[in-house]
Design brief:
This protein is 63% helix and 15% strand. It is of the alpha+beta class and 254 residues long. Helix 1 packs antiparallel against helix 2.
Length: 254
Amino acid sequence: MKGLLIATVLGGVACAFFGLMLGMKHTETKAEVDTIQSQVTVAQTSARKAKKELEEAVTARDEATTKLEAAEAKVGPLETELASLKSKVSEFESAKNDAEKARDEAVTELAELKEKFSPDDNPELLKQQIASQEEKIAALDEEKKILEEEVSKAKEEVIKVRALVERMPEGDLPPGVSGRIAKVNSDWNFVVLDIGYNSGVVPNGELVVYRGNQMIGRVKVTSASPDTAVANILPEWQQAPMRPGDKVLNGTKS
């Protein structure tokens, strides 16, 4: 009987010990699980953040690429026009040089005619030849003058268009740009202006819109040709609907 009691007590002590050990092990395991869960949460948060940053970087890259392509598309026509003008300058200068050469030859021929004059020659025929040569020289002088003016104009256009190309990325407009709205498209929120490259207008440039003495908004140029331009209406500046005939200026109204 006594042995059975001792065995029972020892069994209880053993059960209590193993229970305590199991409890401690359970606590440690739970702590490890909590730690691992916390690490997983941190890793998931970092992964989401990295994914978002990657998406933002891709979006920024795509936007930059789109803007670059748009800028290149706008610059392209102007660069083509610039190349055409440079070619025109070369053609005019070549024609001017040809005219100068022809004039020099005509002057030489005239001098030779005058040297050949003698009392035995037909004076009337010689006079006619000299007069004809002088008319030819006068015509060549006039042609040379016209070609020089054309060369000068073409060079001025080259300078002007080169300046437009340089100003286009920032949309800088020269002082004094002034024109009017020719058409308004309310559905697509843009206007057509009656001024373009020839007036110094370039894409990305902003103009203030006036009706009489009242400022009614601003527009931003998206494309331009020599005599017209298309510009988006800037909603944050619009104070009244724009109409054909409204004036546009770069900067404050003078």
